[in-house]
Design brief:
34% helix; 7 helices; alpha/beta; 221 residues; Rossmann fold; 17% strand; single chain
């Protein structure tokens, strides 16, 4: 039994689920198999549950030296915009960098590099130049669009960006669609037809996968 996995599903059930853990583990395995260079980034880390899972998986794959960078405002949610639902209110899900450190210390895991601040204040200057894998958990339209604009151009050829709460109900009717601004922002960034693949899990997984082309062509901004 994977004790960290069971603990995350028990203690952090509001932000991670079995489907998400499985998808991220698979992507990190493929990254290791490809020999993909670059850093790991998570945009929107809250208390560090997914960052811990990524650290745990990288360690198991012999990738203990690969850096993970996490970005969060640590001030709760911003105000939702007109493209968003009222599922999350302004100020909700407030955390602090110490929460991320405590989550990793609980399992004696190397903590990520923490970048406090809103995405539009940190990403331009503080994202790694080359990203091997990204997990974008922006929740709202504006945050997701800002994350895409800064992250996609830095993806290594063949690198994957997972977009959390991406609900393409046409491709996956079971997907949870509580944060519609995420897909609206993705469509605004990538255009149509979208290169984002809607993933299907055992439950109501809402995650999109974008794979950078072998030679980065750049999407519309």
């Amino acid at each position: 039994m994977d004790k960290i996995r069971e603990w995350l599903l028990s203690e952090h059930a509001g932000t991670v689920c079995a489907d998400r853990l499985h998808v991220v583990a698979d992507e990190l395995f493929r990254l290791r198999w490809r020999g993909q260079s670059g850093a790991i980034v998570e945009l929107g880390c809250y208390r560090g549950a997914m960052a811990l899972w990524m650290r745990h998986m990288l360690d198991a794959l012999g990738e203990g030296e690969r850096e993970i960078h996490v970005y969060d405002g640590f001030a709760g949610m911003p105000a939702p915009g007109r493209q968003d639902s009222d599922h999350l209110a302004e100020g909700e899900l407030r955390s602090c960098p110490q929460d991320v450190l405590d989550t990793h210390a609980r399992w004696d895991k190397k903590p990520p590099v923490i970048h406090p601040g809103w995405f539009d204040q940190t990403l331009a200057d503080e994202l790694p130049d080359t990203i091997a894998f990204g997990y974008l958990d922006g929740d709202f339209y504006a945050s997701t669009l800002t994350g895409l604009r800064h992250t996609v151009p830095r993806l290594a050829p063949g690198a994957v960006l997972l977009i959390d709460d991406y609900a393409d109900v046409a491709a996956n009717p079971r997907a949870w669609n509580g944060l519609p601004g995420v897909k609206h922002a993705s469509d605004a960034y990538f255009g149509h037809p979208s290169p984002v693949e809607a993933l299907v899990g055992d439950d109501d997984l809402a995650v999109g996968r974008y794979t950078a082309p072998a030679r980065q062509g750049g999407a519309s901004t």
